[in-house]
Amino acid sequence: MYGPGLENIGRAQRPENCPIPTPSADQLLVRVDAVSLCLSDIKLIQQGGNHPKLYHRDLSIEPTRLGHEVSLTIMQVGENLSSKYTPGQRVAIQPDIYHQGLSTAYGYTIPGGLIRYHLVGEEILSGDGGNYLLPVMDVLGYAEAALTEPWACVVAAYTQRRRLSPRPGGVMWLLGHPGDDIDYQFSAGLDAPSLVVTTDIPGNLLKLVKDRLASHAGSLIIRDGLFNYDYTKLPLEFPTRFDDIVLLDPRSAQMVSAAAGLLSRRGTFNLVGRLPLDGGPSIDLGRIHYDYVAYVGTRGPDIADAYGEARNRCELREGGIALFVGAGGPMGQMHIQRALEMPGGPSTILATDINPIRLEVLKDRFHRLADKRGVRLVLSDSNQESLRDFALRETRQRGADDCIVCVPSANLMSEASRLLSHDGMLVLFAGVPIGTVAPLNLSNVYLHNTQFTGTSGSAISDQLAILHAAQQGTLSPARSVAAIGGMEAAHDGILALMEGRFPGKVVIFPQLSGLPLVGLSDLKNVAPHVAACLSTDGIWTHQAEVKLIEEYWKP
């Protein structure tokens, strides 16, 4: 990839030949067996060297490669690695790599998998998180192994990434207003910050803060008189960001919006109150997804009651109602499949999409599984019915226990925040850029314990868990495959991804030549012997992959 835009991928929109490299003593030569294309690749195509993970790199001088969801086979082993690896060993990569404190993601900073062979070195084998090369058993097909990375991102969406207690050694801001006579308590967590700034808090709470800070040599700054302040000037008043903000008896959506903008990365915003705000605060949705900003709350009077994982869940409610927005895309389908296959999952799954063809695929692909699991599966065409009407009708005006938004739409995320039941959870799975602001129903965070979560990417542990589940047969990554192609079809595969041409994942097999991009539903017309090995439901199988390689691999 030599720059932004499809025209800068390859030469004349085709792969180019290059010599196969020889590994040094501390490197591995790997063969790329399968690459699953990802919507994140589109962001890289659009932004080129301005993508955050490329650090303004001039791709015309130092190109990169797409493809971060891969299955690999080790071909040659450098002499210093011979005790750890052997030729023929199969591996996958966890692409969210950090090396020497920097994000050096595979498929971004480190050129990715749309090539037949490449070297693996120190930045992958000895990154900040350890070894990002993960072992794969032969029981998994190449496509299945490549798909463990996007599946890991789905699993990561339901693992706790937010900080749910005051940060040790951090900076906390306690913000109240004159005339508040509530007898606030802070039974746990006030010993954590090294600096506390207070603004117009009740005298009894101020005394408590002074006593706790004195016990661990913490510092206190009293900055009163901001309650009727022009909140747009808060960044000038506090040029530093806060790790924790506690807002007492909140009333003003404008105040909440301004104060929330002062949170640091992984910051926690704690609302303590008994009355609703005067509107929906404008909140940076991208920061919930990428910066793991947490919004917690309680009716009080104990401020500490808002914290902790017991109150702030991140998993789908057992036996509850789960609403999936944009469920027809590749990742949305994975969320649906996970909800259906997980033990103790929801009893009702509501799914929406704007594409009626994708809804039909959802129905065909999952209605039997839903029936088998005893789960009520209801689909809705967003062109025919609004999200609000669908959700309230199917929940009998109660709202959903969980709402998972799989499309990068600030409007849908905002609307979904108003469709949650008490103790409901909103998962912002699709990432919108940091700076994307929309109103969220934060009143229900402290009045009815709703939660907003978001995650970006996955970790080594997430992908290892998916590999284990797939190898044990409790998860079927192959259900996600919608189209396949050889190396020459990679460019068409990227275009198809951008156009949303297929209701699932596009998988490229770089070692195969002469295989055009083809959807599984049309495979019988291109490779009938391969199509004959699909499951009775038309799902990709290990046997189909073996037959495909027999027909298209040319030594």
List the helices and strands and how they pair.
Blueprint: E1 28-36, H1 39-47, E2 69-77, E3 90-93, E4 98-99, E5 102-103, E6 117-120, H2 122-125, E7 133-135, H3 142-146, H4 148-156, E8 171-175, E9 195-199, H5 203-215, E10 219-222, H6 234-237, E11 242-248, H7 253-260, E12 263-272, E13 282-284, H8 285-290, E14 294-298, E15 321-325, H9 330-341, E16 348-353, H10 356-373, E17 376-381, H11 387-394, E18 400-405, H12 410-416, E19 420-428, E20 437-439, H13 443-447, E21 451-453, H14 460-472, E22 481-486, H15 490-499, E23 505-509, E24 518-519, H16 523-526, H17 528-531, H18 542-552
Parallel strand pairs: 8-9, 8-11, 9-10, 11-12, 12-14, 15-16, 15-18, 16-17, 18-19, 19-21, 22-23
Antiparallel strand pairs: 1-2, 1-6, 1-23, 2-3, 3-7, 4-5, 13-20, 22-24
Strand content: 15-25%
Overall geometry comes to globular
Helix content percent band: 25-40%
Contiguous helical run count: 18
CATH homologous superfamily of the largest domain - what is it?
A: Medium-chain alcohol dehydrogenases, catalytic domain
Please mark out the parts with pLDDT under 50 across 5 or more consecutive residues, or reply none. none
What does this structure look like?
With 555 residues, the chain is an alpha/beta fold. It folds into three domains: 28-157 and 461-552, Medium-chain alcohol dehydrogenases, catalytic domain (Quinone Oxidoreductase, Chain A, domain 1, Alpha-Beta Complex), CATH 3.90.180.10; 171-306, Rossmann fold, CATH 3.40.50; 321-438, Rossmann fold (3-Layer(aba) Sandwich). Helices cover 27% and strands 22% of the residues. Strands 1, 2, 3, 6, 7, 22, 23 and 24 form an eight-stranded mixed beta sheet that branches. A six-stranded parallel beta sheet has the order 10-9-8-11-12-14, sandwiched between helices. The protein is globular, with a radius of gyration of 25 Å. The protein starts with 27 loop residues before the first strand and ends with a helix.
